[in-house]
Design a protein that fits this description.
Rossmann fold; alpha/beta; about 230 residues; 9 helices; six-stranded mixed beta sheet; about 45% helix; 6 strands
Length: about 230
């Protein structure tokens, strides 16, 4: 059986004007993963979503690996629209200055944002407000599984690296293990940056082999382990 290596992107630039780019730590996480993969994996192809953080993660991995095939983009591997999900939950946060002001009153603003984000995602996935969103939770899941089907058909039995995001990885694992939406959302909360989830496949057969392995970061420097 061949292997799909589903890789969550490196740490993005939370709180910056352009979130969709890797932080300095995110670049280092990618290089560490590349060094760890070198000699263990010989990918026949590299895929990813078309987000900047996906592309930069592949660049960082290639730097540590010593070169990789050019990344081919499949839009279905993109993350859901975090901004739309949060803003439907807290409409006033369309204004980022208001969001920053609201969070600043908490001793740990990042923790306060995470709690609000979890609640916002639960609202999105509840099925009660699908019309509020440009992409509903069912539509997101269908998009991701469609991208997986497209990838498997194209890969045709070769080992493949896929740079994507936590949401798509959680949805793919949900499909493989037939998990509830609640459990899928819980998985999304613990997927580490540049973690590796391995899916074995042969034709229509797909089996989860490894979930959320980030031992490469722990071995190099535990401080590199991040989840947002």
């Amino acid at each position: 059986m061949a292997t799909l290596y589903l890789i969550r992107h490196g740490q993005a630039s939370f709180g910056k004007e352009n979130y969709d780019q890797l932080s300095a730590r995110g670049w280092e996480q990618g290089r560490v993963l590349g060094r760890w993969l070198a000699g263990k994996v010989s990918p026949g192809a590299v895929f990813g979503g078309n987000l900047e953080r996906h592309r930069e993660t592949v660049e960082a991995i290639a730097s540590g690996f010593g070169g990789l095939p050019d990344m081919q983009a499949i839009e279905g591997f993109n993350e859901f629209d975090h901004s739309a999900v949060v803003e439907r939950f807290r409409p006033q946060w369309v204004d980022r200055n208001v969001m920053a002001r609201d969070l600043a009153v908490f001793p740990k603003p990042a923790k306060a944002f995470q709690e609000a984000f979890v609640a916002a995602v639960e609202r999105w996935a509840s099925g009660e407000y699908d019309g509020d969103y440009p992409e509903s939770w069912p539509d997101f899941k269908a998009r991701v599984i469609g991208a997986l089907d497209q990838l498997v058909a194209y890969a045709d039995g070769t080992d493949v690296l896929v740079a994507t995001s936590g949401g798509p990885i959680a949805v793919m694992v949900q499909s493989l293990l037939e998990l509830s939406d609640q459990k899928a959302l819980a998985l999304n909360e613990v997927i580490a940056n540049t973690s590796v989830t391995r899916v074995l496949y042969s034709g229509s057969r797909r089996n989860l082999a490894v979930f959320n392995n980030y031992s490469h970061l722990e071995a190099e420097d535990p401080a590199l382990v991040t989840f947002r």
